[in-house]
Amino acid sequence: MSFLKSFLTAAAVVFALPAYAADTIIISDAYARVSTPTSVSGGAFFIIENTGTEADHLLSASSAISEKTELHTHIADAAGVMQMVEVPEGWAIPAGGTHALKRGADHVMFLGLKNPLKHGDVVEVTLKFAKAGDVLVQIPVDLERDAPASGAAPMAGMDHGAMMGGAAPMAGMDHGAMMGGAAPMAGMDHGAMMGGAAPMGAMMGGMGMAAPAAAGNGLSAPVIMLTPFVRDNADKLGLNEAQRADLKAWLEKPNQRLVVEAETVALRAELRAAIVMGAPKADRQALADKIGANEAKLVMFRSDCTDHWREVLSAEQFTQLLMLAGVLK
């Protein structure tokens, strides 16, 4: 089998991972795996993004493929030995934030599989959220994915893939370094790295502006996000009839940003597979260029959205909107 064929076969499921969206919850980079065809247990891993203005909470997961479907994580016992335990309370998903389920950490656990899971199968899992309700996710089975995806490195020496038959990652390996970037210097401020005399966060604070929180889904944190705040604060902003009609039309427009975000997550997974499998450098550079172009598109989507509300709202309303969104203190 040629290198190209091997590469495409191993990465086929990874390359086209879809994103599943509820009103405020987006599930992306989802995959499932088992250790052997006869395994009676398996796991599912994905990224949860809460695009809403209120915190949500993943309460439980269910699936017809197993006798039990539980939320699990890994913890160290008194002797330092890692153990997998159920998390019946689930996980909080902050407003505008993400929570990554990955091997060696939080994940969905299938106990008592009713049928073998084969590479390329698709399993359905229903995730129950406190506010978003039930979100049905179709998760591809990928038995060739050996390392954590779209998140930080797992706990040193403890990888869920190793328990389920996958290769253990290098302890302490930073995902950014695996993606071809230099390892971050501890405590280094991004503003200082950009050549500014003062850290970027301090500069924004001096202007009365709050820095955006970092995202954990492998995409850049939104530079600014205003539409949800217009939607949820229409009365507080005092929107008139024409402004409310504009808001309705704006919300009904196809959301190109979600498409680009899903594509970018898939491209990052593809680049990761290309790096691990030793694809030609030119191919890796092409993928990196596509990711960079998509990141620029995402920033400009937010920029265009901000321009839209600056035009639609009065100066006083726009200032109030920035305060409601936490951009202005």
Describe the structure.
This protein is of the alpha+beta class and 329 residues long. It folds into 2 domains: 13-167, PCu(A)C copper chaperone (Immunoglobulin-like); 205-324. Helices cover 36% and strands 22% of the residues. The protein contains 11 helices and 11 strands. The strands form 2 sheets. Strands 1, 2, 3, 5, 6, 8 and 9 form a 7-stranded antiparallel sheet that branches. Strands 7-4-10-11 form a 4-stranded antiparallel sheet, with no helix packed on it. α1 (3-15) packs antiparallel against α9 (256-276). The longest helix has 32 residues, at 281-312. The N and C termini lie far apart (60 Å).
What does the secondary structure layout of this molecule look like, with pairings?
Blueprint: H1 3-15, E1 20-21, E2 25-33, E3 41-50, E4 56-62, E5 66-76, E6 82-86, E7 91-93, E8 98-101, E9 107-113, E10 122-129, E11 133-140, H2 160-163, H3 175-178, H4 190-193, H5 200-206, H6 227-232, H7 234-237, H8 241-252, H9 256-276, H10 281-312, H11 315-324
Antiparallel strand pairs: 1-2, 2-3, 3-8, 3-9, 4-7, 4-10, 5-6, 5-9, 10-11
Helix pairs in contact: 1-9, 9-10
